[in-house]
Amino acid sequence: MPARPYVIDELISAKAIAARIEALSHQIAAEFAGTEKLVVVGLLRGSFVFIADLVRELDLPVEVDFLEASSYGDATESSREVRILKDLRGQIEGRDVLVVEDIVDTGYTLSYVIKLLQNRKPAKLRTIALLDKPSRREVAIRADWIGFEIPDEFVVGYGIDFAQANRNLPFIGKVKFVD
Ligand code: PRP
């Protein structure tokens, strides 16, 4: 099937993202003040840009780990079945943990990951999502910190893909089909 032609309109600028991350990083640093070393867990692949910017703003000792959970594959609709494609490298029992997500849509991914990691008995587990689409929620879950609440638009950029393209855009854009 040929790809549908589309254009991308800027929804959230790189500057607005940076300012929001700076503000949130102060709140996170206050929440985890005194931590020996915060384990910052990025959910691959979408969070790779966000986590890179976030950890560089965080005035805390951190280590970085990654978990890959997928419910979409290359599809645009959630399969509602979350699979772990890559687990953490490190142990989190008794540790302070921050899970970093790019976007919460139906909520299946984040709620699955929270349950999975809570079972490992971290000392404190908190979550942050750059984007939140509450109108799409099917599972009652909310990240502890949210960068931006957005309407039900098809968004790309700043780590988020459309059929594995556009993750490298420095801003969040919305896809507009032109056919
Ligand atoms: C996307 C996104 C979130 C999840 C949110 O991941 O990165 O992890 O979907 O959707 P949900 O709230 O409906 O579960 P995807 O499976 O597309 O993988 P990716 O991060 O590798 O792009």
Structure description:
The protein is of the alpha/beta class and 179 residues long. It has a single domain (6-26, 36-177), classed as 3-Layer(aba) Sandwich (Rossmann fold). Helix content is 22%, strand content 32%. It contains 3 helices and 9 strands, in the order E-H-E-H-E-E-E-H-E-E-E-E. The strands form 2 sheets. It has a 6-stranded mixed sheet, with helices on both faces. Strands 1-9-8 form a 3-stranded antiparallel sheet. Strand 2, helix 2 (48-57) and strand 3 form a beta-alpha-beta unit. The two termini are 14 Å apart. The model has no long low-confidence stretch (mean pLDDT 95).
What is the rounded Rg?
16 Å
**Cα shape:** globular
Query: What structural category characterises the helix and strand content?
Result: alpha/beta
Report the order of strands and helices: EHEHEEEHEEEE
Report the CATH architecture. 3-Layer(aba) Sandwich
How far apart the termini lie comes to 14 Å
How many strands, which pairing sense, and closed or not: the largest β-sheet?
Answer: 6 strands, mixed
The domain count comes to: 1
What binds here, in terms of ligands, is: 1-O-pyrophosphono-5-O-phosphono-alpha-D-ribofuranose
The level 1 CATH classification is Alpha Beta
Q: What is the CATH fold-level name?
A: Rossmann fold
Strand proportion: 25-35%
Question: Treating each run of at least 4 consecutive H or I residues as one helix, how many helices?
Answer: 3
User: In which range does the helix fraction lie?
Assistant: 10-25%
Number of strands: 9
On the 0 to 100 scale, the average pLDDT is 95
Contiguous runs where pLDDT drops below 50 for at least 5 residues:
none
Kindly report the spatial arrangement of strands forming the biggest sheet.
4-3-2-5-6-7
